[in-house]
Design a protein that fits this description.
By secondary structure, the chain is of the alpha+beta class. The protein is built from 16 helices and twelve strands. The chain has one domain: Cytochrome P450 (Cytochrome p450). The radius of gyration is 22 Å and the shape is globular.
Length: 459
């Protein structure tokens, strides 16, 4: 819940190990009227836009408890930020809201893992002001690593990538249409199209051999879907009886070993791919290459893997807007942006206050977790006219689907390119798409994922 400026924030008691088994996700507001938006099980039913509205209107910076859930232990709590202006303010101010101090996920990492986690660009700060001085995480590497990775995306590589993505989209959609025609008119487009489209495009970009491409999806399930038993299975339990963080060194050992082996192969047999560029760049150390591979594998895959079916779902649920897109009344470039606003691939990102500060009138202490909710910001009427209406011609459209500030998504251009190509090919392959049955959603407060989406495909 929120508290008046200057008052101590409430602290949620940590349930004992003898707490009763967890029931369904809480249905109502917590103390003080601020609804819970932490429980990942909420998101398996639907993104909680009604709760976000209550927070934006009455508790724009709201204290949230972190009770134990799905076998994962309790945490200390965090501030939920839901208004668009406040979300962008946090994302842009790395000096006050650090990605390095506690990394970028709501759950706190093991302190022993922090030096390792801080080797990733995502968990580094461009400003040295908030950098830890004693236990790792040289945040001044952030800009250097972003520049090195950006150089790997050459214009020639982009052009080749677009041609490959288009052929792949055309082939996958043709298969989905054939499956629908042979059956009852419906097809699970996650299984038939979007999962393969995202992971195979990423594999082409990185230079992963065809025989190894299933590994990329397996690693994504493990890291992104760790709260969902369908995606990652039961948590791995450590010697202390607690679940092991899927982003810990122990859980990523096989991925890093593979990255090292593939990099060595690329040095002997260079190709026209991103991993060859990174592996043959002297400034990139072996640990940095491993972390770049991790970031590109997981973030590069799941951004499109979440956004693509979300866009298809939006079109299926809004036949009027779909007709505007097909007729050309709604240009595709703007439609891509509105579909990203409507279904952002990322639901939330965490920062840590590097010093005492104030946001929207709420005092925040140094060390507090501050979590921005992208999906909540996208429905803020202070930033968007009629935000609960899908409008494929919306302009301006200041969504934050790819973040903002120094950590804006490095691969945003490639994600937009893939989505544009997929939607173009969809319009060619079909005359209409509709919803055959409600989607199955990922159990996650981080990624806005769909596990299945059965659509009717009319050609």
């Amino acid at each position: 819940m929120t508290t008046a400026p200057g008052h101590p924030r409430p602290r949620e008691p940590r349930p004992s190990a003898d707490a009763p088994p967890e029931g369904p996700a809480p249905a109502g507001p917590g103390p003080g009227g601020a609804p819970d938006v932490f429980d990942p099980r909420l998101y398996a039913r639907a993104v909680p836009y009604d709760r976000y509205r209550v927070l934006r209107d009455h508790h724009p910076v709201a204290w949230q408890g972190e009770p134990p859930v799905l076998g994962w232990p309790a945490g200390p709590g965090f501030w939920a930020v839901t208004r668009h202006a406040d979300v962008t303010a946090v994302l842009k101010d790395a000096a006050v809201y650090s990605s390095c101090l506690g990394a970028t996920q709501i759950r706190d990492p093991d302190p022993d893992d922090l030096p390792f986690i801080r080797r990733m660009m995502l968990n580094q700060d461009p400003s040295p002001s908030s950098r830890p001085r004693s236990n790792g995480g040289d945040t001044t590497d952030h800009g250097r690593l972003r520049r090195l990775v950006s150089r790997a995306f050459t214009p020639r590589r982009v052009a080749r990538f677009e041609a490959l993505a288009r052929r792949r989209a055309r082939t996958l959609l043709a298969g989905a249409v054939a499956e629908a025609r042979a059956g009852d008119g419906g097809c699970d487009v996650v299984a038939a199209v979007t999962d393969d489209y995202a992971v195979l495009n990423l594999a082409d970009l990185l230079g992963v051999p065809p025989s190894d491409r299933g590994l990329l999806l397996d690693w994504t399930h493990r890291v992104i879907g760790y709260q969902d038993p369908d995606e990652a299975g039961e948590p791995v339990v450590g010697a202390d009886g607690r679940p092991v963080n899927p982003r810990s060194p122990a859980m990523l050992r096989d991925m890093f070993a593979y990255a090292g082996e593939l990099a060595a192969h690329k040095r002997r047999h260079p190709g026209d791919d991103v991993l060859t560029t990174l592996a043959t760049t002297p400034e990139v150390t072996a640990p940095e290459l491993e972390m770049c591979f991790f970031l590109l594998t997981v973030a590069g895959n799941d951004t499109v893997r979440a956004a693509a079916p979300g866009g298809l779902l939006a079109l299926a649920e809004h036949p009027g807007e779909q007709r505007r897109l097909r007729s050309g009344e709604a240009p595709l470039a703007g439609a891509v942006e509105e579909l990203l606003r409507w279904h952002p691939p990322v639901l939330s990102f965490r920062r840590t206050a590097a010093r005492d500060t104030e946001l929207a009138g709420q005092r925040i202490r140094r060390g507090d977790k501050v979590v921005v909710f992208h999906a909540a910001a996208h429905r803020d009427e202070r930033a968007f006219a009629d935000p609960d209406r899908l409008d494929l011609t919306r302009s301006p459209n200041p969504h934050v689907a790819f973040g903002d500030g120094p950590h804006v998504c490095l691969g945003a251009h490639f994600a937009r390119l893939q989505l544009t190509v997929l939607y173009e090919e969809l319009l060619t392959a079909t005359t209409a798409v509709g919803l055959a049955e409600p989607p199955a959603r990922l159990v996650s407060h981080f990624i806005n994922g769909l596990k299945s989406l059965r659509l009717t495909l009319t050609a």
